[in-house]
Amino acid sequence: MPDAAPASAAPASPAALFKAFTRLAMQGFGGVLPVAQRELVERLGWLTREQFLELLSLSQVLPGPNVINLALIYGDRCFGWRGALAACTGMLALPLLVVVLLTMAALRFADVPAVGGALRGMGVVAGGLVLATAIKLAPGLRANPLGRAPAMAFVAATVWMIAWLRWPLPWVVMALGLPGIALAAWRIGKALGKAHGDVT
């Protein structure tokens, strides 16, 4: 498989990482993932769409929140432990303060009907943002070692297992992740073998 084109830019320092991840975290009401894709890929150009998909895939199979995992992995890739600390602190510091203040306000005004309606509305918006992000990232599947059709089949199987069968996420990861890894490894090996044969 051909390598993805490199990103057009990179963070200049851990401070730049901290600022960028703080900015995207503070926009992430209802979910940070769509904002992370827009900030890191579209606005800053630190990652290509394919690179973002790769980081996101790894982040989702590791324990913990996927965007925190993504911040740690990307920060470490750029500046080692200092980058990981800067990116993770940016994701958590200011949002933690905001969440504490909003929780105090929600407890005080929990009986107000408008507050409950606002929270339910935010849930709908979060779902729409995740769907929009999936649509934006779908073209990146062209460079996936699985190929577009098998990748879409895995996506459909994932949705079916979670939405219809109600399987817990660890079961879905084991049921589809291991076969997906095996198939991707086989296809990469086959492509490398063919390339080696062409060279010789």
How would you sum up this structure in a few lines?
With 200 residues, the chain is mostly helical.
Structural account:
With 200 residues, this protein is mostly helical. It is built from seven helices and no strands. Helix 1 crosses helix 2, helix 1 packs across helix 4 and helix 6 runs antiparallel to helix 7. The mean pLDDT is 81.
Number of helices: 7
**Radius of gyration over alpha carbons?**
19 Å
One letter per element, helices H and strands E, the order comes to HHHHHHH
The CA-CA distance between the termini, in Å, is 18 Å
Q: Approximately how much beta-strand content do the residues carry? A: under 5%
Class per helix and strand makeup: mainly alpha
Layout of SSEs?
Blueprint: H1 14-26, H2 33-43, H3 49-61, H4 66-108, H5 113-137, H6 148-164, H7 169-199
Relevant terms:
200 residues; globular; mainly alpha; 76% helix; 0% strand
